[in-house]
Structure to design on (213 residues):
């Protein structure tokens, strides 16, 4: 810790991260051991986080992430969308296809930003707010490949007809952003994705990731 940082805040954030990484919650003793601090400090941290609904404790005393985190999370999408729009606009105009940023939302893929090209006669109607299973469509499959460590060169995923008949998609995952799973992709009315599209999507995903760091 440096003179400019808060040890208490740092510990509180570490508690949230530890709880976010478990499905069954953690006891005060478990948190104490993982943080390397005494139980009294953990009790105070949990009590403060509970006041802000960021942590809740069940009848057995296990602490879990609270619903207050969801309220904070809802404010993330507009910030991410704003950061991604320049790269998405460039991608849509360059490829002549609908570009999108997709994030994981629970067990689904959620399109949080969509940009349509301005110069094409037609394009796929794809809207922000559109949801689909992670294992269907290029956007979700790219995210799963990154999560499972199965993504290989050239670094993008291609699909055809999985979400809409006659439509093909290409997507590349966002890489190197802690706590955020997502992908950047395009969807087009075509039997196959042109060869140059995949690498261009990878470049756009890298631009978005850089903007979010």
């Amino acid at each position: 810790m440096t003179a400019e940082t808060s040890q208490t805040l740092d510990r509180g954030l570490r508690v949230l991260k530890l709880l976010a990484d478990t499905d069954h919650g953690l006891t005060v003793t478990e948190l104490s051991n993982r943080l390397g601090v005494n139980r009294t400090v953990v009790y105070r941290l949990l009590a403060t986080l509970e006041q802000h609904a960021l942590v809740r404790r069940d009848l057995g005393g296990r602490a879990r992430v609270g619903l207050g985190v969801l309220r904070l999370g809802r404010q993330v999408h507009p910030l991410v969308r704003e950061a991604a729009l320049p790269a998405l606009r460039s991608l849509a105009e360059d490829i002549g296809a609908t570009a999108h940023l997709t994030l994981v939302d629970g067990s689904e893929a959620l399109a949080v930003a969509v940009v349509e090209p301005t110069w094409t006669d037609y394009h796929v109607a794809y809207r922000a707010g559109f949801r689909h299973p992670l294992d269907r469509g290029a956007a979700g499959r790219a995210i799963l490949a990154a999560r499972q460590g199965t993504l290989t060169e050239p670094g993008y995923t291609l699909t055809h007809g999985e979400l809409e008949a006659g439509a093909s998609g290409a997507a590349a995952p966002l890489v190197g952003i802690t706590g955020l799973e997502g992908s950047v992709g395009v969807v087009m009315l075509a039997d196959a994705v042109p060869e140059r599209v995949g690498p261009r999507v990878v470049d756009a995903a890298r631009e978005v990731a850089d903007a979010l760091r």
